[in-house]
Write a structure and sequence with these properties.
This protein is an all-alpha fold. The chain has helices at about 10-35, 50-70, 75-105, 110-115, 125-135, 150-170, 170-185, 190, 195-210, 215-235, 250-280, 290-295, 300-315, 325-340, 350-355, 385-405, and strands at about 360, 370, 375-380.
Length: about 425
């Protein structure tokens, strides 16, 4: 895919995207905290977890398509960047689920029997394998490993990464057959919510490749997005269930309309906000670094918070009798999630370099030798040509990771010189 020449995400929008993904992760966190630790607290946004996942999908389509067109010019760079981003955090989440569930069940096994099975399923090798391979949501499957219910969205997300990779990097003649094979393997549930991811892609193209709207139109789009969102929450919220649930064809049709309209609201909001921010001075000079740092742990927060919340809830059950301690443990849980982010999520460049350094490099003798990409050396001198190519791929991958960080938190990117349009 060709790179977008001379067009970058400006600093204001970059930090705002960070703020959105952080806010969505916190909404999911608080939604589950409300259910298990603070059920007596009634606040509207605490029940918006399902909609927050729809926001994630739109943002993912925006960011991945952006770095795919700006930074990632080679399929190996795209693959390594995705694996380095997803796999370490996924494996960390599986480990946290196992440990937290083991501690919680040892402390209060009755509590885990008391929990609705939608939030806890005893760990199994089959579910662990589905999590590691991200096949937990293919067709009508809904594999759950312990208390790791939020992991379900990765079964969708990784499939959309695969779709984009096939679309962007497969040979032209093989593209359509490969995409059909992918769709047949993914199944109808994943395809139903793919429009959310594609909306993010189209939003990126609108924001990056077209001039901004006038201020009045931008504000109107933001107002329209809020009216649409709150109208859906007011009139259709109870009719919709979770995206992964497949109770009946009628229910699936309702869910399809509901969540994709949520996606439309997000698109309107992003385009309107991007137009306003592109014409504004730098707004996040002081707060930008803090927002960027917090957003840099939002993926870990999303994946590991629920097993930790359930573990703490098992200590206090019934939690209604220990409100102050529940609040304290909730704060501890939030902090612990960000400490865990230091182990994997904030180390994606390290994991990417590790993956590439382990790739075999064909030498002129036909043998394969490992390359130390970080130092640019190999174990055999005659492997230099192949090593140079691999180093180039690694450099592209590093640019891609840098691109992700900039689209999700750079305050230094210049504003685009664009003409406002009606």
């Amino acid at each position: 895919m060709g790179a977008i020449q001379g067009r970058k995400i400006d600093g204001n929008l970059s930090i705002y995207l960070d703020l959105l993904r952080l806010g969505a992760a916190i909404v999911v966190f608080l939604s589950h905290a409300h259910v298990f630790l603070l059920p007596s607290i009634k606040i509207g946004p605490l029940g918006w977890g399902r909609e927050a996942v729809a926001v994630f999908f739109v943002l993912s389509g925006f960011v991945i398509s952006y770095v795919g067109q700006v930074s990632e010019k080679e399929w190996r760079a795209y693959l390594v960047a995705r694996v380095a981003r997803i796999m370490p955090v996924a494996l960390l989440a599986i480990a946290v689920i196992f440990v937290a569930d083991s501690i919680g069940m040892h402390a209060n096994a009755f509590y885990y029997d008391f929990i609705n099975t939608g939030f806890f399923t005893p760990v199994s090798a089959e579910a662990a394998l589905a999590y590691v391979t991200f096949t937990n949501q293919l067709w009508f499957a809904h594999a759950v490993f312990g208390s790791g219910e939020p992991y379900w969205s990765l079964g969708f997300e990784v499939q959309y990464y695969l779709f984009f990779g096939l679309f962007a990097f497969s040979p032209r003649r093989a593209k359509v057959p490969l995409l059909f094979l992918w769709a047949a393997a993914a199944g109808p549930k994943i395809l139903m919510y793919m429009p959310l991811w594609l909306m993010g892609w189209l939003t990126m193209k609108c924001v990056i490749e077209r001039p901004p709207f006038r201020r009045t139109i931008s504000i109107a789009m933001i107002i329209a997005s809020l009216l649409l969102f709150f109208s859906l929450k007011l009139f259709a919220d109870r009719a919709a269930t979770n995206m992964y649930e497949t109770w009946s064809l009628t229910q699936e049709a309702i869910n399809f309309v509901y969540f994709n309209l949520i996606g439309v609201a997000v698109v309107l909001h992003l385009i309107g906000t991007a137009s306003l921010l592109s014409q504004a001075p730098a707004l996040f000079t002081k707060t930008g670094p803090a927002i960027k740092w917090l957003a840099g742990g939002s993926f870990t927060l999303y994946l590991v918070h629920q097993p930790l919340i359930l573990m703490f809830a098992s200590f206090l059950h019934p939690v209604e009798e220990h409100i102050a301690m529940a609040v304290a443990l909730l704060i501890v849980c939030f902090i612990l999630c960000f400490l865990l982010a230091e182990v994997a999520e904030r180390r994606k460049k390290f994991f990417a370099s590790l993956i590439v350094s382990l790739l075999p490099v064909p030498s002129q003798t036909g043998q394969k030798t490992p390359a130390n990409i970080a130092s640019g050396t190999v174990f055999e001198d005659d492997a230099a040509p192949a090593t140079s190519q691999l180093i180039r791929v690694f450099a592209e991958m590093q640019n891609a990771l840098d691109g992700e960080e900039k689209v999700a938190g750079s305050q230094d990117a210049p504003h685009r010189d664009r003409v406002s349009r009606a």
